[in-house]
Amino acid sequence: MTVTETFDEESLREKYREERDKRLRPDGNDQYLEPTGRFAYLLEDPYVEKVEREPLFDEVTVAFIGGGFAGLCAGARLKEAGVEDVRIIEGGGDFGGAWYWNRYPGAMCDTAAMVYLPLLEETGHMPTRKYVFADEIFAHAQRIGTQFELYENALFSTSVSKLEWDETQTRWIIHTDRGDAIKAKFVAMGTGPLQRPKLPGIPGIETFEGESFHTSRWNYDYTGGDSTRTPMVKLADKRVGIIGTGATAVQCIPHLARDAGELYVFQRTPSSIDIRNNQPIEPEWFDTLEPGWQKKWLENFATVQTGGLAEEDLVKDGWTDLTRRIIGRIGEELKKPGTEPGPELFAKAYELSDDEKMEEIRTRVDSIVEDPEAAEALKPWYRQLCKRPCFHDEYLQAYNEPGAHLVDTDGKGVERIDETGVWVNGTHYELDCLIFASGFEVGTPQSRRSGFETFGKDGETLTDHWKDGMQSLHGIHMHNFPNLFISSLAQGGNLLSNVTHNLVEAGTTIASIIAHALEIDADEVEVTEEAEREWIEMIQGNPRSFFGNPECTPGYYNNEGQPIGRLETLNAGGYPEGSVAYFKYIDQWRTSGEFKGLEFTNHSE
Ligand code: NDP
């Protein structure tokens, strides 16, 4: 008997609706607080000391704002294309982006390193395990920076404060918090989809007098230990609280449960915790891979994960498991006489496979968590892709540690915070330290998330250009913003399960356009109004996304349960035919050399 046969479909749907309704709230995204004012310290860099320097007023050919994998991939491709004069400007003290900031204990990437770590063949790096920890990812970012000589011209601990297009000079002027006003012929930005920490808007949050920090700025001075997972010995006599049970919390809770005197996990919605099954990568096997292997792996993962047909599943993990089940089920059904292929068959196969998967995930909780009450509260009641799926082999076990306590809020969230601790259901939990694993801003305006405004032709701001939703060609070019490029996911491949795949593609595209513009001596390259309009009409007209499913429990995948209108569709939408089709399309678009939709202008002609 399969797992799906053990429960009644209708009561399961009803249970999903009930659990969603408990969590729906009218304030959606507005429930969160920005890290400003009393919380501004949350954005400070705890890892390096800011060294004073003289402001710069020089000129570069290409400036890239953001030193994460977006900037590194574009930088590497530009160097390969012979563009030497590239300056990466980064707020953190080194390259790495998300992996510079997120050094919390246990931080690792949930996407297999063979596809997540960019430029593995170019750098010759062999990942140590199937899934690697944050310190190895950070070191890989540094490796790309060193190999492609991107350190030489980089500016670290420098935050852009304003970006403006100077029409007369046909240059961008980049203003920073160091007083710089740097000129650049081309500017690209990759400021990251999840980079601005947000805080839960819990009454009294500002009153807590103990130690508190956000997971993306871990205070190892306070906790002891370091980002290589050495024990946080200073927590041995501390009562630690953590708010949030998303992908970040799932990774750090096992370490806190091991090291803290007492740990209180305040849960609003449990994550789905699938099997991790991490393994070392064997050099003998790695050496057998043939040149061009990473492209093949990237395409294979994207295909299998998004429901496409492939002869084999190279990564074979929790991300691709659901698709394998769906395809298997469709295959079985099609063997039955009279069964027609089509969207209905797919939808049914998807639903049943999802039910089966989630039932296994809930059964796994019972098999690991000893306290039946905690086990019940840790069971997720929603479809797997309603929230970011998690994969871990020590998270559920952490609740068997004697000092670890799950404080479930039954979907309501923490009631309030005071000087000494946290209140839930009328009970006060006294704490020495309160950690916010409350995630990052998604869906707020770009200028707020990046921390600066961009002024294009005639002073038009990017905020204004996007007031009714993002407008671009390929998620890269905006009309009225010449010589400016964005490296991101939205309006492009939008492959959420492997963010860096999008960034490698965007970097390659941006580098080929810049190289072409330099080759033909163009002063300006800009998307036409028409090409931009056609692209967004296509995105808006074909919303092909599971995200936004109104049956889902709220979260950042579905606009916190609020309606999805034009703005949300444009901001979060991708190429209607899916990631794999986009990657194929963009490859042909850039290699054709036509750069359709862009206008290259030489003012002296
Ligand atoms: P999330 O936004 O996923 O989680 C925030 C958590 O805070 C949720 O559990 C949320 O509950 C909870 N919360 C918010 N407000 C309250 C409240 N008032 N009371 C109690 N709880 C509250 O943030 P994360 O940092 O965990 O993850 C963000 C993203 O970062 C991930 O989705 C993933 O994309 C990425 N990430 C990637 C990793 C990787 O492998 N590459 C590793 C870690 C993170 P609720 O669910 O009810 O809203």
Summary keywords:
single chain; 605 residues; alpha/beta; FAD/NAD(P)-binding domain; five-stranded parallel β-sheet; 20 helices; binds NADPH dihydro-nicotinamide-adenine-dinucleotide phosphate
CATH architecture of one domain, by name, is 3-Layer(bba) Sandwich
Rg result:
24 Å
Record field, number of beta strands: 21
Large-scale geometry: globular
Which distinct ligands sit in these coordinates?
Answer: NADPH dihydro-nicotinamide-adenine-dinucleotide phosphate
Mean pLDDT: 94
Largest sheet: 7 strands, mixed
Helix and strand composition category: alpha/beta
Provide the CATH topology of one domain.
FAD/NAD(P)-binding domain
Instruction: Quote the beta fraction.
Output: 5-15%
Runs in which pLDDT lies below 50 for 5 or more consecutive residues are none
CATH superfamily of one domain: FAD/NAD(P)-binding domain
The number of helical elements comes to: 20
- End-to-end CA span: 75 Å
Broad CATH class of one domain: Alpha Beta
Tell me roughly what share of residues is in helical segments.
25-40%
Kindly describe this structure.
- This protein is an alpha/beta fold and 605 residues long.
- The chain has a domain at 59-196 and 442-541 and 576-601: FAD/NAD(P)-binding domain (3-Layer(bba) Sandwich), CATH 3.50.50.60.
- The chain contains 20 helices and 21 strands.
- Strands 2, 3, 4, 5, 6, 18 and 19 form a seven-stranded mixed β-sheet that branches. A five-stranded parallel β-sheet has the order 8-17-9-10-13, with helices on one face.
- Helix 17 packs parallel to helix 20 (579-591).
- The model has no long low-confidence stretch (mean pLDDT 94).
- Bound molecules: NADPH dihydro-nicotinamide-adenine-dinucleotide phosphate (NDP).
- Residues 23, 109-110, 194, 200, 202, 243-249, 266, 268-269, 388, 413-414, 437-440, 555-556 line the site of NADPH dihydro-nicotinamide-adenine-dinucleotide phosphate.
- NADPH dihydro-nicotinamide-adenine-dinucleotide phosphate binds at residues 23, 109-110, 194, 200, 202, 243-249, 266, 268-269, 388, 413-414, 437-440, 555-556.
